[in-house]
Amino acid sequence: MTSFFRLASFIAFSLMFQACAPSWRVSDITYTKISAGSDVQSNPTYDSIIAPYRNDMQAQMNEVIGHSLVEMPKQKDQPETLLGNFVSDLVFKTVTQSLGLKADACLLNIGGLRSSLPKGNITRGNIFSLAPFENEVVLVEIKSSAVQKLLYYLTQKPQPIAGFTMMAKTDGTILNITGGLASNKESYIIITSDYLANGGDNMDFFKESVGRVATGIKLRDMIINYIKETQVIESKLDQRLQIIQ
Question: pTM for the complete prediction?
Answer without folding.
Answer: 0.80
